User: Fold these one by one.
Assistant:
Number 1:
Amino acid sequence: PMLGTNPFTWAMPTDEDFPFVLDCATSIIQRGKVEMAERAGTQLAENLVIGSDGSSLTDPPSILEKMVEGKAALLPLGGKGEEHAGYKGYGYATIVELLSAAFSAGTFLKGLSGLDEKGNKVHFRVGHFFMAIDPEGFMGLKEFRKTAGDIVRDLRAAKKAPGQERIFTAGQKEHEARAVVQERGIPVNKSLASKLILIKKELDLSSYTFPFDE
């Protein structure tokens, strides 16, 4: 693969209890989704990940192994070809690569594999790009917050598709999930619980206990 997940994040304050926060990969899914499917023992949908021959891969354990070998790639937003505008995701990912690597003289594309041309391990020089815009230089923070709040509220109040109960805006689900986790704790599936118990035994961390200890 040439490009990674190359995520971009936008965060903007509103006059609500939580900001608008969009944090997403420029690939259809990220590695974490593959790992979650592997833990749950489920297959991925078609045309999310491809092999080195361009064929669709759906088996999470095999995908994770091939990713380490450089023989599997996460497809960009829109997928393969132009039918579903895959060139847009490809373009977004390239912009992230340009901003992150060109401004910082960082490693880019295949250089981020952690290996040199001879297969020797090399230090990562991962670049990042951050930009902050001060609303006070335009209309003022208070007015910005109100307008931003009006926008997300209008979106959530829009007409819903048949069978849909709610419309969410970016950051809302995470805000609500955080409240649930703070009250009830973090949910852990059986597969992850088993791995955590095994790690605890291997490292002899008997002084630590889990609610799901055997």
Number 2:
Amino acid sequence: MDHATPTDAIEFQAGPAGATLSGSLFLPDRPLGLVVFAHGSGSSRFSPRNRAVADYLNRADLATFLFDLLTAEEHEVDQYTRQFRFDIDLLSERLVGTIDWVSQYALTADLPIGLFGASTGAAAALRAAAERPESVAAVVSRGGRPDLAEERLPEVLAPTLLIVGGYDDVVIELNRLAAERMNAVNRLEIVPGATHLFEEPGTLEKVQELARDWFLEYLRR
């Protein structure tokens, strides 16, 4: 698989309040599953690291959906106030609403769903997996903050891969503790030589490989 066909930017309503969010869907010719991305604090669906991971997954015949957890107005406010980026309740609610939406959207309704969360987005992904156990088949966390979803971790049923940089000492410990609290199949992968953002040469490529293998194992079942 050499490429995935992108749809035009999609606007959709998510969550009880019906917030209008924007997303980008990339569909291989014969997708094996769909990976929904939850970006980290202060980021958006245009996150270059998430885009790189998504492109790699597309080449493995996995569809990807990258979307903004905040509305355009909220994002503008958050750039100055940081009011929303750590509101895990809000972010989780939006992600759950997005899972419900892709489960009904014609192009993705029949695909098993995985979640890829980065930083605070990983906390939202874990909470959403606990909230929608019948919908979420696998979770991958990159440099995640699972401690922000601590109370829901035992409820997560989806197999979960926790990826942390080898130099990200505090986050390594947070992920170790999270793995111990989880009842689901889980694995902690520490990428040597990587800091929190996986900016070092070769480290993001390792994340891509780990995520691909995890999703292919659990979304094809």
